[in-house]
Amino acid sequence: MSGNAALRDVPATIEPAAIEPTTFDTTTIETAPIDAPPFPPRVAPGRAFGRIVLRFPYFRRMLARMPLSCRPALYFDSLANLGTGGLMALFSISLVVQATILNAPLWQQSLLGMLFFASSLFSPIVTWVGRKVPMQLLVVVPNVIVAGLLFLVAAPWGGPLAFTLLVGASFWVRSFPRVAEMNMIRVRYPASHRGTAIGWTQALSALSGLSITFLSWGWFALWPAGYAGLYWIVGGMVLLGAMFYNRIPVSRRNIFAAGAHQGAARSPLAAFLEGARVFFADRRFLHYQGAFAVAGIANHIGLVLIPHVLKESIGAGNGTVAFVAAVLPALLIVASSPVWGRYLDGKNPMTARAIFNGLQLVAYVFYTIGGLLGNLPAMIVGTIFHAISNGGGNINWLTGSLHFARPEHVRLYNGIHVFLTGLRGLIGPMGGLILFATAEQAAKWRLPGLGLGSWVFAIAAALSLGGMLWMIALQAGDAGPQERLGRK
User: Fold this and answer.
1) 292: closest CA among 198, 206, 356?
2) What counts of helices (H) and strands (E) characterise the chain?
């Protein structure tokens, strides 16, 4: 399709009331003037703003690829993900700040990793609260709180530990929007276009994160003492993202509307028991989560150690640490996410995850070589493979559970998926620290230390291999997505 033809395919109006939660019009296309936003003024934040945004040809072409009813959601979702990308970039950036500016001890870097990954333990609460509160509200309000926490990062008390706790707290609060957004994916996009839509929004998120990461690279080199200013900028982006997300039109009849399941369990304990029963009864989903966990914990063990190894084992300078641990991954995720998104449309999530685990395996082999031999090029090659894997793995992480869930179980399955990620995130970083540190180092933190050093990356490589083989075995006998099987 030519660029001009694609622009003409973006419609002038889309009525949000026509959007249904599980029925999508995948054929209807209307025409529109080249300068018209794809929805009426009462839905858009302003026609002038819409004209500016839609002057980007690729954005308009992406909207034109989507079913008519999905385009308003993709428009606002894209803008909201600019804030999400900035926030997600803060994890790698914060590890660099701890290692190079604040000189935080390794246990605090591991603590930040635990707070980042283990925030997903809140997901069952999100699932239960979502029975009473609209999912869209569970995205908007927590993001406002996250912005407030980021504005407090410059507090003059507490030093590195206060920084770790404040940034970590923002990740914990972020668990509510993460689960709610995953649930709303089912409402906003059909399976036939879901990979494309999420690949696009993830690419925008990664592009936003890349911009913040590049900014941090120069900012910290010129003015390291003013690092908190970067967190204020990201806080503002998250706040704007919440405002855009709040404008996504969603039918009041959607399956995640407050009170949509009045007959469901009424207490957290009853909801937990009900969820456990459904989870253990679904053998496909149970095995998928087991295979996901084997390779997933490899990242939780090894990821937080990379800046430390670069600085202490290889002797890289602060700028090099920032480039390898933050800038290069962000750049490659931006480049690979749209490609992966198109590839993943209609693909079996087990097949996709096996590919990502294979790339992750190669990455950790190179990390092992780099760490043991003090070889910077090997660490860079490992980062390249790891980032390309994450470019598609992030999409698969968001959408894979939908392959198994019946409509009434989407909220539950996403909650279980994110909770298990949090459980791995609670165990993995501390486990990696214990495996990595010597007994003398760990004694300072009142922990045992096995002193394996960079051999920890070899353990992560073995776990990645195990997860890849398990996923290959699962995809061979898969019957297809639950959404298309039509079982109720």
Assistant:
1) 356
2) 22, 0
User: What pLDDT band is residue 483 in, cutting at 50, 70 and 90?
Assistant: low
CA-CA-CA-CA torsion for 42, 45, 49, 51, nearest 10 degrees? Answer: -40
Contact call for residues 359 and 385 (beta carbons, < 8 A): yes
- % of the chain residues with pLDDT over 70: 79
- CB atoms under 10 Å from CB of 196, counted, come to 21
Query: Could you give the 3-state DSSP secondary structure of residue 336?
Result: helix
Torsion of CA 293, 296, 298, 299, to 10 degrees: -160
CB atoms closer than 10 angstroms to residue 159: 12
Q: Which of 286, 290, 297 is nearest to 462 (CA)?
A: 297
Residues with Cβ within 8 Å of 437's Cβ and at least 6 positions away in sequence, in order, are 106, 445, 447, 449, 450, 451
Amino acid identity, residue 480?
A: G
Measured CA distances, 103 to 92, 308, 312, 448 (Å): 15, 11, 12, 22
User: What pTM, to 2 d.p., does this model score?
Assistant: 0.70
Q: Is the separation of the CB atoms in 76 and 250 below 8 Å?
A: no
Please tell me the least confidently modeled range out of 80-94, 230-244, 429-443.
429-443
In this prediction, residue 24 carries a pLDDT of: 43
Going by C-alpha positions, the residue among 467, 338, 483, 485 that lies closest to residue 401 is 483
Query: Cα(186)–Cα(75) distance, rounded to whole angstroms?
Result: 16
Q: Do 425 and 118 meet the contact criterion of CB atoms below 8 Å apart?
A: yes
CA dist., res. 211 & res. 205, Å (int): 10
Answer whether residue 271 shows pLDDT above 80.
no
